[in-house]
Every structure is written in structure tokens, then in C-alpha cells.
Amino acid sequence: GGGYADLVNSGTSALYTALGALELEVAGEVVVPSISDHGGIMPAALHCQVPMLADTQPGSFNIGPDQIEAVLTPHTSAIVVAHISGEPADMDPILELARPRGIPVIEDCAQAHGATYKGRLVGTIGTIGIFSTMSGKHHATAAQGGVVFAQDEDLFWRIKRFSDRGKPFNTDAATNVRAGLNLNGNDLSAAVGRTQLRKLPAITKRRQQAAEGVREGVADLKSVSVGWQVPDTESAYWFMRIHVDESKVTVDKDTFARAVSAEGIPLSPTYGRVISDATWFRDRKIFGTSTFPWDLEDYKGDRNATFPCPNAKEARETHFALRVHESWGDQEARDAVAAMAKVENAYLK
Question: Is 256 exposed, middle or buried (0-12, 13-18, 19+ CB in 10 A)?
């Protein structure tokens, strides 16, 4: 549908570049997800922005509009929304919060290549879309890589300059025009990425078909269900969130998931960590022995804000990540369902 894309060397670099292109004033606040890869959070602090963790929507790994609104302040300079596991976050009400306040929204699509929200591709809805293209993602540029996408041409050139040491692209300047890092991708990654991009629609469709087979198969189970998703969305299923109702079985979710894994089904009993529990975030280990950006003199926000994130912790404790793949067919989906049914039968109260 148009727009401009810049290849960088990782998804973390993509977010770092996006924030750099926005030219945020130091000592602001960036709203970030409470469940994400740490590389989807750290660049905010490295730009001297205080990360403000929004809780997830109930029953989801994605932050929602109410949870974002709860941490908005007059100091908010940007919002980062991650589409975790390939499930689109609820973008329209999030943008309704951001637009009147003039707050740019970055969509972190590292796990959501090809996912759609109300018929629109994720990454095209907010101000900037960022993608990880490492080897495990739907759209890969070989071993590592990332993409920064914008529909606004002026913003794209700011992206391009920041990702390449402030080179004066699309200007009349004779020297580099701002400080930046060399975050470029490379020609080999670009060649692989262009080829893989043509395969993306089929990859996403096969994952969706496999996930639908699992969804239909677990419909009759008593303790297992597919995690809640925003209506009128299509997940890209980097993984499937599988919910375990511990009140129906005699074991906890982790034990249940490990038993399913023992049947030969690829899964992770737990996905990641809630960011507020991470050592680097809790101890503010960003710049040497300082506690910047929280203790920057110009920061006017709450230096002691805490982020309990009860929804995120509940979601993490009640879901496991089923590692569906584009190589799955009907048989693999049936095998996953059969394994979950077998474990449920063994542990059902």
C-alpha cells in the first residue's frame, strides 16, 4: 500500500532508530509494553526517555487503551505498542488516545508480520512500524535484521539519517546533520529479505490454517482454550497463546505444558518475563552508576513510579506458547490437540 522501508541490523535497532527519528526531547516518557522482548523496551531508556509500563488487557499479552491511558502523563512523548505472538493490539482506541495529544505511536511488529487489524496490515496503522527480521521470524533477512517503515516521506528520511550516522540524505548539507549510529543492514540480508518477502503471504496463511485446526480441535476440551484476541483481527501466529484453566485440573499451567511437550509438541511453558521484574529495569542499569534517565534533572515525572501489571502477570501465569509453524499441516495440528487432550484427561479434576 505504499510507504518507505529502511533495512537495519536488528529489531532492537529498528526501535532505536524509530525513536531517534522522532527527535524526542530528553527526559520525556515513552509508554511501553509490560510483556515484550527486552529489546523492545531498552531503546526508550537509551534515548533518555523514562519507560512507562502499560499493563496488558485482561486475558491478553498485548497492552490496551485503558491500560495505556492509566500511565499517560503530560510528559508522554511516544507510545510503543507491540503485537505480541502475532496478535494485533486494539489500535483504533489507542490512536484515539494518542492523536488529540499529538503523541506518535510506534507499532512493534517483530512477531506479527502479515497480521491484520480490521483489514489493515499491522505496521501501517501507527506513525512508524518496526519489524524484526531475524531467522526465526515469518519474514527473515538471514541471521539478523530489522525494518523501519513509515508512510510519511519526511519521517522516512529522518529514519534513514539516524540509522546511518546522521548522513545528509535528501538534504543540501555538506556534512552529517545529526548524531546517530551505523545501524545499517547489508546487501546480502537485503537480497534474502526481498526473496522471503514474496513468500510471506503463504507463510502467514499456513500458520493461520494450522492455528485454526488447533482452535477447532480444542473447542471440546474443558481446561484448554486459545487465548482471547481482539475481534476483527487476524493473528500471524508467531506462536499461539494457549490458556489453561487451573481450576479444572490438578496441576499448574507449567506442569500441564511440560506434559504436553513430553508428547513431542513444540512449546514454551512460559513466554518471556514481565518487564517490571527484570533486573535492568528494577535497578535502572542503563548509564554507568547513574540512574538516568529517571534521575535526570529535567525529568518532571514520578521518579518512584511502580508498575505492578497484574493483568500481565496473570496472563503469563495462565498461558503457554504453542510453537505453530508454516510447515504444519492438518496432521501436526491434530497431534497438538491430541497431546493436550491426553494431558487433560490425565489431570482433569
Answer: buried
